[in-house]
Amino acid sequence: MMRQALLTSHLKKSAQLTLIALTALPLTIGGLTPVLTSFAAEPTIVADAAEEDNPFDFIGEVFYRRHLRRSKITREYNCDPRVNPDDSITCPNAPVGGQIINVKELRYARYTHEVVPRARFGLYRDLELWIEAPIVIEDTQEVRFAGNGGDPTKTAVDSSISSISPSGNNQSYQQLFSVPDGGNMAGLPRRAGFGDMLFKLRYAPVSSERDDTRGDWVLELGYRAPTGSEMRPRPLSTGGVGRGVHELMFGTSFSRRFDFVEPYARFEGSLPLGSSLNSPFKNYTGSQEYQLPGARGGFDFGVEFIPFENPRENVKIFIDLGFGIAYQAEGRDYSELFDAFALGAQSCNPDLDSRDGRDNCALYNPNARDSSFPNQAPDIFDGITTVEQFVTVRGHLGLGVYASEFFKIGADLALAHESEHNLTNAEIGRDLNNVGEERGVFVPPETTQQRSEHNPTYVPNLDAIGRRVRVEETTIFTVSAYLGLLF
Question: Is 312 helix (H, G, I), strand (E, B) or coil?
């Protein structure tokens, strides 16, 4: 809210909160399921208009953010000393038939640089229009074998023992994609471009400027449009960074000033509503489990400390310390291995011996295909998988300076951690004919009706028990800086 002088009004009565975005990846940068949620620098300040002494307010901001995401990739393995004597060390007490464990396979890293211009217009009293137009400068990935993790006493993971990218001497597994020993996977696309725009209406039903005995409360309703080119794997990739999904967003923020501290809280959620024309999130014929990414929701709380302020000179220094937690529901989504899965599937040749270490048959469910079905999953797996639900815990430390009535500057350091979850978690289908079904075991399809029971987005080589791929030890580091002009 701003009247005669935007900053003077803010410094006296309303919250000054610098919570730079923590966005997911799910990697929402570059189109992945995002693991960090985007927030305004001052979630309880609303630009307004139509005041007698302040007919119009405008805030222009530019954010720069650098994200580094690191993860460990594991895969399920049936540990059974009765079949493999080497397993006696790993699972000596395994029951008859073996024990499913997750074994280390790969290390993953993603580097993203983005610039986000933001414009905020006062429309009426306590009502604001917010527009963001993200631009990804660079989005690159690295996939390599996990090695020994720096511990020489442990067995180093390489192609000789990998179940994801086995060498010619490793005849136990089918290759999903090729990773060289001692190097990074080749062929992963480098992306850059215009992202998905965000439009929000923000309204403050309670304002400390109108009543200094109260705090500030803001309501938000937003829409993220698929304005960026959709992410595609090579060779279809055009460098796009968009997700290809329409999203409805809603949020609310609270704050209250007490002398030189101001605690705040914020809730935000988003719900995917549909996909764009070129989006990979299609609705196929059959017992499809999910079409879109899962819904997201999160809660953040923190305190702004104000060590110095001079309202007469429109100067203020503040330190912002915040923490949060978010939940990502299960759904079909981009994952850490989206590009790797798709690159491997492009070289698939089902006619080759499945044990020769060359072929990759991570294809969508062949049992769901029928010539009479009008809309089927693509012949070649496009890398989109059913990603299991997970929780993100995050925190940030920010420093901001209002240097004058019209200028502000700030920076932020953020750290987030995602809980372990499966990157491949699709169910095989639904038992529509009451024949009986359990995960991974289904009546062989002989008729069109039986094929309709099968989930077309189920990938046997990735989603069956004993073959699922999992992400662990995910850490996201974010460094942010911003400039703002206030009128």
Answer: helix
Count CB-CB contacts under 10 A for residue 250. 15
Tokens 């086995």 belong to residue: 166
CA distances from 95 to 14, 52, 92 (A): 63, 78, 9
Which of 446, 458, 430 lies closest to 287, judged by CA?
430
Query: What is the C-alpha separation between 174 and 357, in angstroms, rounded?
Result: 6
**In Å, how far are 11, 125, 154, 212, 380 from 209, measured between CA atoms?**
11, 12, 62, 6, 59
Contacts (Cβ under 8 Å, ≥6 apart) of 136 = 29, 30, 112, 113, 114, 191, 192, 193, 194, 195, 241
What are phi and psi for residue 399, nearest 5 degrees?
Answer: -130, 130
Spatial contact of 47 and 2, defined as CB atoms under 8 Å apart: yes
Q: Cβ neighbours of residue 137 under 8 Å, at least 6 residues apart?
A: 113, 114, 115, 192
DSSP string, 149-205: TT-TTSPPB-TTT-SSS--TT--SS--SS---TTSPPS-PPPEEEE---EEEEEEEE
C-alpha 257: how far from chain center: 33
Report helix, strand and coil shares of the chain as percent, to nearest 5: 10, 45, 50
Contacts with 234 (C-beta within 8 Å, 6 or more apart), sequence order: 187, 188, 189, 339, 342, 343, 346
Taken in order of first residue, the domains within the chain and their CATH numbers are 6-486 (2.40.160.40)
Separation of alpha carbons 48 and 275, rounded Å: 33
Number of other residues whose CB lies within 10 A of the CB of residue 355: 13
Q: What is the pLDDT of residues 36-87, one digit of tens each?
A: 222 233 778 888 888 777 788 899 999 999 999 999 999 999 999 888 888 8
Q: CB within 8 A of 366, min separation 6: which ones?
A: 460
CB 193 within 8 A of CB 239: yes
- Count, residues in the chain: 487
pLDDT in tens, 104-162: 999 999 999 999 999 999 999 899 999 999 999 999 999 999 987 766 767 789 998 89
Q: Contact 36/300 with Cβ under 8 angstroms?
A: no
- Residue 342, phi then psi, degrees to nearest 5: -65, -40
User: Can you point out the beta strands (E) in 28-87?
Assistant: 33-34, 49-51, 54-56, 58-79
pTM: 0.86
Residue among 190, 152, 153, 124 nearest 339 (CA)? 190
> What residue has token string 């029971």?
453
Could you tell me which residues are beta bridge partners of residue 283? Answer: none
| Cα distance between residue 299 and residue 220, in whole Å | 14
Nearest Cα residue to 361 out of 447, 464, 274, 276:
464
Q: What whole-number distance in Å separates Cα of residue 423 and Cα of residue 385?
A: 7
Q: Which two tokens stand for residue 88?
A: 């006696």
